Amino acid sequence: MRSIRGAAFSVRAGLGPSAPTWVLLQQLFVRGLVAVKFLALGRILGPSAIGSVSIALLAVAIAESLSDTGLPQAVIQGGDAPTRSELAAVWTTLATRGVLVALLLIALAPVMNSQFHLGGALALLQLAAALPLIRGIASPAYYVVQRNRGFQHIAGIEMAAAFVDCCIGLAFAFGGAGAYSLLIGMIVGETLKTTLTWATMKPRPPIRAAWSGIGHYIGFSRWIWAGSVVNLLLNQFDKVVVGKLLGPAQLGAYQMSSKLAQMLLTDAAFAMGQYLFPTFSAQHRHDARVAARLVRLYLAIVAAGLAMFVVLLRAIAEPLFALILGAAWMSAVPLFKIFVINMAIGALIAVLVSYLRAVGDAKATTHASLIQMVILFAIVPPATHYWGVTGVAWSMTVGMGSAATWMLYRTLRRHDAPSFP
């Protein structure tokens, strides 16, 4: 009887609202649908269409990174739970940011269309402006639920949005909507997610303009913003170079090989990061020494698993591309073999970032990004000149490896050191 009761308790614990099981289920479901959507659309639309959509999403990523407030992470990491009035100020800030980013993207769409040689894709770029607007008006209660480790609730919303995104995107693609199908699916999915944050999450902030009461978040969030700006240069610099110099078709091959490697390697680590950031934050508030031991354990497990997976993926790269994407994408295989290394390093970085931000050392992640940026700016021009798009990919490997080394050093030397301001 005792063993039966123990087994029942284990099942209940594994499916509790704060159990990491929900993060795993969410990521398996969401990333699986993302994989199905991107791979199916890649096969249907081809490299040029995927490259055009990538440039539209690149514009969104650049604008959102430059305007990142860091407030969501500050709400999750802060010592005290936010009040409703503080949440109102958070919502006002994020909603205003979403509106401004959307207007900026619409205004700059003609310039982007001209610079990246997209031809008649102006409306595609303008449609992408809806994404930051929809995300900006979501309820900040989402971050309170994350802070409280309500992973079951978050998983339900994310899985519903991903399912709708995938279904709508594929339906429009089969209906002949072309590159627009991917963006339409994303917009409908984000709209559902935003609606559910207001309908199902508490505490709901009052919908009114409020700007005061969140000054205590600035010390932490400023490093998140700085990190976002630097990461913008790091994560989008290579895509800008490839898209500007080589055009949408080459960018499509570059993006698809990167995306496939990301789905197979990095996405699982980012899923773990969703669990680890609030978990490390809670553990550090309780016992900093235990949190330091916990991150070492996670790093050892993740590194061993990634090493084996990288070897396997590089060995099966050609048949994998032939089976999933078809002959039109075989030129991307050499890039994929490089990107599996990059994404493995990125997976380790995701764990390190979760810990460093959880203990208040967001500055260390920004410094790592600066190191990576300096290295990239130094080696990308000659690497591109001599080796083209392959040189860009290997340059990313060197830069990411340097950033990971710095963050690992800061992590291993912390022990029970006090939090950074």
Automatic annotation (TrEMBL):
The chain crosses the membrane at residues 46-66, 87-109, 121-145, 166-189, 295-316, 336-356, 368-386. It is found in: Cell membrane. Keywords: Cell membrane, Membrane, Transmembrane, Transmembrane helix. GO terms for cellular component: plasma membrane. It comes from the Bacteria. The keyword Transmembrane helix applies. It is a multi-pass membrane protein. Its main location: membrane. PANTHER family: LIPOPOLYSACCHARIDE BIOSYNTHESIS PROTEIN WZXC, PST FAMILY PREDICTED COLANIC ACID TRANSPORTER. Belongs to the polysaccharide synthase family. This is PST family polysaccharide export protein.
